[in-house]
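Retro notes - structure team

What went well: the batch runner handled both jobs without manual restarts.
What didn't: labels got mixed up in the shared folder, which is why I'm recording both outputs here explicitly, each with its sequence directly above its tokens.

Job 1
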Amino acid sequence: MLARASLSLLAAPLVALSALAAPASAQTTWFVDKTAPGPGTGTATDPYTRIQIAIDAPTTLDGDEVLVRTGDYVETLDFAGKTLRIAPASPTDQVTVNPTSLGRAVTVASGEGPGTTIEGIRLRSGFAPVGAGVLVDGATLRLVDCEIEECRASLDGGGVAARNGGTVELESCVLTGNTATRHGGGVSGPGVRVVGGSIVGNTAGTDTQPGDGGGAIDAVIEDCSVIGNRATRSGAGVARCSVLGSLLQGNRVDAASGVSVVRGGGMIDSDAFDTRISASAAYGADVEGFGVARSTLTSCVVTGHWAFKVPVRGVATFECDLVRCEIRDNFATHAEAAGIGMYGGTARDCFISTNFAPTFTPSVPDGPTRGTVGGGAAAAQLERCLVINNRARHGASLFSCDADRCTIVRCVGESSVAAAAHAPSGSPDRSRLRSCIVAGLTVQIGSVTNQVTGIEPGSMVDAQWCVVEDGWPGTGNLAGDPLLTRVESGDVFLLPGSPAIDAGDPGAPADPDGSRADMGIFPFDPAKCGGPWVTNCGNTVAEASGRASLSGNGALTVTMTQQVPGEVAVPILALASGERIVPELFSICVRGPLTQGTPLAVAPDGTLAWTATPAELAATGALVGDRLFIQLYLPTGGPSQASGRLSHLVETTLCP
């Protein structure tokens, strides 16, 4: 009995194994050719004449593929619950599904599973309430190398839509010229993922119907170009999306009638990583976030937004949270612009640079004559940020902001930091600075010297434990030069002896070396001396690398190529106390005490490479942290010049 029972227990696994070993039903390939005589049996020699006939055929089963020959197929497709692959019959076949007035191009709404694929086919001129090009409802679809164009949704999802748990992935697809009366001109739905490809020239909304997400709404966008889309309320590029490694450029909101505020020309209510948002626009109403609104950005660049003739809060960003982002080269022309780089929100470890607005006194018929405020940021919270080269009338760097461990330098306007006296309605009435540096207040613009007040008199600015170059009352504040490596080039590391070292807020977290917090964005690092920088001065190109070090560690090298072999060059060195003059050809670009280094000859291959020795550097009298100017002089003119030649000017800071 035991033996008989054991055999019976083995029987079930053996049956299962035999079932696994049985061969699966073979995949079948069916063919479609609209020029065939029809009706056809789906073979290569007797193809079907319509794609839907191939799908509906009882012999077409899950896992089969339908290969289509060249043609413009005027029909709508419904996968009818079958998991199929539909593609051109060959790489040279060009297939278009064009339903014209028949309805939607493709419907996948009967539980189709993974493996349902359309590849290499153009879908155009579909029309439906939702998902005029493609609707995936409670099913799964993969689109590869497809073009979806000029489809029109009377509600949402002009090109592609997913709903009720449906998922659709678009790989290397192009969506262009699709429209939705409400939202998601290109794609719509939380189940939509676009990888690669482009979303170009799609529209959400109409002149009378507000629309969001011209390119995409509620989707995942990865490694994609989202360009030239339009919406009539917000998020012309994307709305409520997750965006990774993409380009959003030239997207524009034009307000529908009745819309009083438009937001997010490029993006709204989204998360983005490693993405560039540029040249967005928003018009027809007051603007909040010409570029990006109410989004979270990490390692992104927001640049090139020009706000013309509209009141705007936040040309680049409005109420966004920024981490390791660059906010640069954004502009406003309206006198009521506030926060050219950012308005509201937070910024951590960010670079906010060259955001400009007019600095003149405006005359606004319907409002107070305040003028522009917050070239870098307004009404925002910043931590460990560099705010440099911004422009506005009041608070050219920051207006009504909280800033912690920021370096705020080089701006154009009446003041670098301001608050209260010129605040737009609804703005906070103060600025708060902790462990910050406010410096570089003299800016040369051509032949004009612009002198800026560090903190605007009369402003409600609470600054403590800060270096403010021209002074400001407050606990722990210092006045004078903070000794930064090279403010004019954006190199703002602390030099040895800087008063900002170990002088920040005693209650702030310690620096990485365990010492008391320094002021400014970068804690003092003895190894970070600054430079070298090359200035186009003299008449011969030079390159520089390494560190000017008294110990010889990482030695500075100046290199010139295509010189006369054997010719002898003389290094010329000067302390930065020598005045740097306007660059001129055939001239030494500094005045003051000069020293000569050891002459050296051009190598047989025409390369001249001078490496500074500790003795040559010490001979200048420079101390650690001092600035040095260096040029190489070749006394003879060479084969095509009658006089000597001077290299471009190299500037560097002397390291230990």
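Job 2
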Amino acid sequence: PPRIVFDDDELLSIEADSVIVAISQRPDLDASGLGEQLELGPGGKLAVDKHLATSRERVFGAGDAVSGPSTVIEAMAAGRRAASRIAGFLDGEISPWQELADHPRGVGEHLAISEEMLRQPRQRMAQRQPRVRRRDFEPVDLGFTVSQAVAEAGRCLQCASCCECLACETACEQVGALDYSRPGRSLEIQAPAVIWAEGGDPPWWEDTDGKHIYTVDPASYSADLMDVLMQGSAAAGLAMAPAVGLRATATPMEPEPEPDYNPSLIGFFLCTCNESMAPAEALAAIEQMAASVPGIVHSQSVFSACHPQGADRIARAVSEQGLSQVILASCVCCPLNFQCISCNDQRTRARLHLFERLGLDRSRFEMINLRDHLHAEDFSEEQIVTRARAMLRSAFIRSRYLGPLRQGTTEMGRRVLILGGSQVGVSAARNLALQGLSVRLVHRAWPSGQPLPEKLAERPLAAGLESAITQVEAAEIEGIKGTLGDFSVRARVTGRWRTWKADVVCLTDENLISLSMYAGRAGLKKFYRYDFAFFNTPHIGVYRVMPVTLGRVDPWQAGAALAGEVATTAAKAHLLDHQLSPMVDPERCRGCGRCVEICPFEAVGLKENPDGSYTSEVYRHNCVGCGGCVGRCPVSAMDVPYFSNQLLEEMVDNRIRSEA
């Protein structure tokens, strides 16, 4: 057939949505002199047999010369297949390279890598000297030599990508988190609002009326993590208003009663961490050792306490055996509803499954973190069991002192006081009103003893606000007293002093920030209270908007983000008090006030008794459980559950006696 002749210098560009290649492409074997020596098939392609051998001995064919135009992947596969046939031809043996199916196999094992295989270091590529390469933009790396390239290729064990050997599915058989045979699923979610954070408009935008769709454009903020979080908080705050119908009325939880323990019914559970905690023989010895302790009526190993099925097994055994106390040896350190710097996803999930989903009593659980202390990779099985024995001894001592953790609840109302009628304040007020909260908005406010800034003096009342918003034109604020859910704000309005009651207070003008606690008073405040909570202050329940926040988002977005945080707090109608809050023994307390002085969180106060004396009182929702007040008390009138003085004394005494 005639050849197609074209001019390399003549270029033509045509825009198209689809391109069909139909110009009769064919191998140009004549130019290489092979056209007359090799048998050709239809279309001028090489004719090969099932072994990819051509009509000429010792010549093989593959790729586009055999199949015609194809994809890069198909060409690479053809090259691999031809290399396999050539290797078999030269060695006279069947090639070890098996033919790969063009679909997931779902069966078979990948070739095992021998433990005796020597480790080969990565080849180091030569580079140009710095004093030379700094003067130009020529390539720095000089490339591998032939011997280096061969050595580097010989290091490859084909472990860089999934070969679908399904070994992971076998290893995860108990957990069942991997299933290659499961088909894809489609989910349909009904939601009152949608947040789109992929940039641009959602692809389904035209199928909606555009209402309650809030977009976060990645191009609108910098790479600063705080900017990203603030943008997301603003979108979340806006989405909470149309989602108010999803809220359910909370039921107050009564303080935990004193457990009626039967110390003879103790259960021991050992989490194997999906058989990775320690060798099976060592784990069996640990379980047997625990089962031999007097009082243990049930001993069981579970494959994973952080997995729903593992937690279900524990709950089932507790119910069926009537266990009054449980000792769980896993990676979890404690049963508390508290996140410390050591908490990870597995530890949190285990507590969520056991105590939140299954409703087991936290105060009846003693936890041992074997995972971090056994160091199974560094010790023999005998040493592992010895280390576990010491931890089990402490756990059994602690189990004798288990008691109620939560001492009470703090009731939370829906009254919000916003001081400052800036754009931030108005935005937050309107958003909260749409969510059903009762809002009092003071447009111009200033602390007593300070003048009203000139830029605020002419601020007018906002128009068109929701009926749930009570507006106050101006007020002098003497101070904020009280705690979350029970604030008292003394203010002078039109010459008369009055007291406003509120559950939450927001400070949205810069001149009001001094009404909140000083943020630099203790370094622990930031550690405990500023976990990406942009508006929190050390005074829990008092929120403020700092100038730096307005540098990240516009005022209206800042108000929405503030409303989101306030509404989240208000939605917790009955707040759970901190489960490490100290307890006060009124018979020992002499009202010296040292606990009040040392607490940086306003979590301890003094209440007056009928006889004129004073006794310490703990505001548990403000408490972070640091124990500073317990250590400061000179008469041991304060103590914390789970780490009581009596428990510590018993553990120290037992340790001394065991070493005597």
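One thing worth noting from job 2: Residues 334 and 357 are 17 Å apart (CA to CA).
We'll revisit the folder naming next retro.
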